[in-house]
Amino acid sequence: MIVNFTVENFRSINEPITLSFEPLGKDNYPEYYIYKTHSGLEVLKLAIIYGANATGKTNILRALDFLKKIATQPKISRDEKIEFSPFLFTDSRKNTKFEIEFIQNDLRYIYSIELNNSQIIKEKLAAYFSRKSSNIFERQTLENGTVQIKFGNKIKVNKVDKEIIEGNTLPNITTLAGILRTSIRIREIDSAIRWFGRTLKPIIEPRIDLTGWGLEQIEKKEVDKGKVIEILKNADFGIYDLIVEKEKPDKEDVKFLAMLLKNFEKKDGNIDLDFIEKTIEKIELFFEHRVENKSYKLPYGEESAGTQRFYQLAIVLSLLLEKNLIFPIDEIESSLHPDLIKHFLKVFLFNTKGRPAQLILTTHYRELLQEKDLIRKDVIWFTEKKKDLSTDLYSLADFKTDKLRKEHSIYNAYKMGKLGAVPYVKTYRVEE
C-alpha cells in the first residue's frame, strides 16, 4: 500500500506535491476504509482526485506509473534517454524528484530518486525495521558517469556482489533495475522490487481496452470467473454467464506463417508451430442473457460501451478482492452510470475489509460528494492550476471547520467554487 507519494518537476507538476493515504481524524467506516499494519500504522485504501480539465489529475497517476516503470524496466544501453517531460513553463532546469512510502509484507519502505533525462543523480531505499528508518542502500552517479552504491549496515552484501551490482547499474537505470540485471538476490530489496513490479499496477485510462487482458486473467485462473459474473449480476446487467469461444487457425496458414517467420529471422531448425497457432487463434467473448427463462448469447462487441467498461472494471474488482494490489484508474466515470460508480466503490470497500488493497481514482463526478454516509473527507483530493500553470494538490480535510462545517454540503461548496478545483468559465459569447 502507498502511505505517501511526493513528486516534483514532472509534466504539469512543478513544485513538490504530496498525495497522502494517512487518515486524518475519525470519520465514516474506519473498519472498511483503513488498513492497520502489525506495527500500528493506519493507511487509507482509497483516494479520489477531483479537478478541472488540464489541472494535472492524470499526471499524478502518470508520475506513479513512470516511477513503476523506471524501477523495474532496465535500459539496454547507457546512451538511452530517460523518456519523460519535466515542467516546461519555466526557464529553470532543475532535476525531477520522486519519493514514495509504501508497505510491503507489513514492512514500511521509503524510496526516493532524483533524475534528469540523461541519468539517475541520486537514489535511496530505506525501511522501518524498528521505530527508526534504516538505510538499505544509497546511490549516486558521479560526473564521470561512475555509479557508487553504499549498502546499509542491516543489509549483507559481500564485496564481489557489490561490484557486480554497481557494474550493472548504468547511469540511466535505477539500482533496483540494475539488480534485476544480475542473479543476485537480496531479500529486502527483492521485496521492494516485487511491490513495484507486481503490487502496483499500471494506470488504467479510459482509452485503454482491458478486454484481452481480462480474458487472459480468467484463462490463467488469476481471476475467479464466478466472482466476475456475480459482480455483473449484482450491477443489473442481466448477464448470467461469460462464454469464451476459440477458433483454431487453418493448419496450412500456420505452416505458411512459420515459413515466413523462419525466412525473415533467417533461423535454422524448426519453428514452434503450437506457439504460432496459439498466437493467431481467434478468441471471441459472449455474454449470456436470460429472457423469460430462455438463454441468449450476445457477442461482446454488441454490448453497450457501459457494459463493456463495467465488465473490464469487474475484472479489476475481482483481482482486488483476492489479491493485495493497487490500481490507479483515470476518469472512473467514463461510460458508467453514476449508480454504478457508487456500486463499484461499495463492492471494493466492503469486500476488502482488513486487507491492504488500494484504489486511486480521478473523476469529474461531483455528485459523489453528496454521499456523506459513504465518502470520507480524507480520501477526497483536488487539483488546481497555479499562476505558473503548474499543478497544486490539496485535500478536502485541509479545509478548516469554519469554512466547511459538518452540516454543510460538500457537493454545494464544490459546485459553487468554494473549494476551488473547478474551471473558470468566462462568457459564452464569441465575438465576430
Q: What fraction strand?
A: 15-25%
Question: What is the CATH C level class of the largest domain, in words?
Answer: Alpha Beta
The separation of the N and C termini measures 54 Å
**Could you say which structural class the secondary elements and strand pairing correspond to?**
alpha+beta
* CATH topology-level fold name of the largest domain: Rossmann fold
Overall pLDDT metric? 91
Give the second-level CATH assignment, the architecture of the largest domain.
3-Layer(aba) Sandwich
For the report, how would you describe the main beta sheet? 7 strands, antiparallel
CA-atom Rg in angstroms = 25 Å
Provide structural commentary.
This protein is an alpha+beta fold. It folds into 2 domains: 1-201 and 325-432, Rossmann fold, CATH 3.40.50; 211-321, no CATH class. It has 12 helices and 17 strands. The protein has helices spanning 30-33, 57-72, 159-168, 175-180, 187-199, 211-219, 225-234, 251-265, 273-280, 305-322, 338-351, 410-415, and strands at residues 2-8, 17-20, 34-36, 42-44, 46-51, 96-104, 107-115, 120-127, 134-141, 147-151, 239-247, 282-291, 294-299, 326-329, 358-362, 380-385, 391-395. The strands form 4 sheets. The chain has a 7-stranded antiparallel sheet. A hairpin with a 6-residue loop joins strand 8 and strand 9. Helix 8 (251-265) packs across helix 9 (273-280). It is globular and about 75 Å long. The N and C termini lie far apart (54 Å). The model has no long low-confidence stretch (mean pLDDT 91).
